[in-house]
C-alpha cells in the first residue's frame, strides 16, 4: 500500500540573529546565507522522506514581528511542529528558547506532547562558543525535548533537525 503525502506546518522561532533564516534556507535550498535581511519572514516548502513516509513541510521562518504577542500566538496555534533556535555562541539566546517553550505549551493548552526540537546553531564557530554541551544537555533532558547542534554554514546536522521533528509529528498525528 502506498501511503499518501502528509502535510505539516513547521514554525521556526528564536531570538534575532541566531541563524533561523540560515538554518531554514540551508534545509530548503541547500545554500548558506552569509547575509539575509533580518526582517524578512518567509514560508518555504520542502518534501522530506522520513522512514518511507513522504512529508510535505511548510516551514515558516519567523523574523521578530512576533514580539507582538497576538501574532506569536497565531503562529503557535497554526504550527504543528516547532524548531526553537538559539546560537551556541550567544548564551542569552538560550533564555528565549525557554520562554518560547513555555509559551507554546500555554497556547497549546498545556499539551506536553506537542512536537518540538531545540537547535543550537553556529557549531562551526568553535572559538566563540558560549554554551557548553553539558549545560544544554541537562536542560533539554529536563525539558524532554530532542536537541541538535548544527552549522548552516557547514551543513552539519541540518536535515537531522527536520527528520527528528517529522518523526514526532507523525507520532502525534498518526493519520490525519
Ligand atoms: P536570524 O535573524 O535568526 O534569521 O539569523 P540569520 O539566519 O539571518 O543569521 C544571522 C547571522 O549569522 C548571518 O550573518 C548568518 O550568516 C550567520 N550564521 C547563521 N548560521 C550560521 C552558522 O551555522 N555558522 C556561521 N558561522 N554563521 C552563521
Ligand atoms: Mg531571519
Ligand types? guanosine-5'-diphosphate, magnesium ion
Number of helices: 5
Strand order of the largest sheet: 2-3-1-4-5-6
Element-level helix/strand string = EHEEHEHEHEH
How far apart the termini lie comes to 17 Å
Overall pLDDT level: 93
- Taking Cα atoms only, what radius of gyration do you get, to the nearest Å? 15 Å
Shape type: globular
Structural class assignment: alpha/beta
Uncertain stretches of 5 or more adjacent residues: none
Quote the beta fraction.
15-25%
Sheet with most strands: 6 strands, mixed
Summarize the amount of helix as a percent range.
25-40%
**Number of DSSP E strands:** 6
Report on this model:
The protein is α/β, with parallel strands linked by helices and 176 residues long. It is built from five helices and six strands. It has a six-stranded mixed sheet with strand order 2-3-1-4-5-6, sandwiched between helices. The two termini are 17 Å apart. The structure holds guanosine-5'-diphosphate (GDP) and magnesium ion. Residues 14, 16-22, 33-36, 38, 121-122, 124-125, 151-153 line the site of guanosine-5'-diphosphate. Magnesium ion is lined by residues 20-21, 36, 38, 61, 63.
Amino acid at each position: 500500500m502506498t501511503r499518501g503525502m502528509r502535510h505539516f506546518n513547521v514554525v521556526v522561532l528564536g531570538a534575532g540573529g541566531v541563524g533561523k533564516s540560515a538554518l531554514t534556507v540551508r534545509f530548503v535550498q541547500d545554500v548558506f546565507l552569509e547575509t539575509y535581511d533580518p526582517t524578512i519572514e518567509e514560508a518555504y516548502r520542502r518534501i522530506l522522506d522520513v522512514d518511507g513516509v513522504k512529508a510535505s513541510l511548510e516551514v515558516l521562518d519567523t523574523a521578530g514581528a512576533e514580539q507582538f504577542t497576538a501574532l506569536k500566538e497565531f503562529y503557535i496555534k497554526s504550527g504543528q511542529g516547532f524548531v526553537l533556535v538559539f546560537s551556541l555562541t550567544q548564551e542569552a539566546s538560550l533564555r528565549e528558547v525557554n520562554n518560547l517553550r513555555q509559551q507554546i505549551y500555554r497556547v497549546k493548552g498545556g499539551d506536553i506532547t506537542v512536537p518540538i526540537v531545540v537547535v543550537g546553531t553556529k557549531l562551526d564557530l568553535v572559538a566563540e562558543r558560549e554554551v557548553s554541551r553539558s549545560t544544554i544537555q541537562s536542560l533539554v533532558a529536563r525539558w524532554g525535548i530532542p536537541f541538535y547542534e548544527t552549522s548552516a554554514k557547514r551543513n552539519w546536522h541540518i536535515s537531522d533537525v527536520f527528520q527528528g521533528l517529522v518523526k514526532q509529528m507523525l507520532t502525534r498525528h498518526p493519520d490525519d
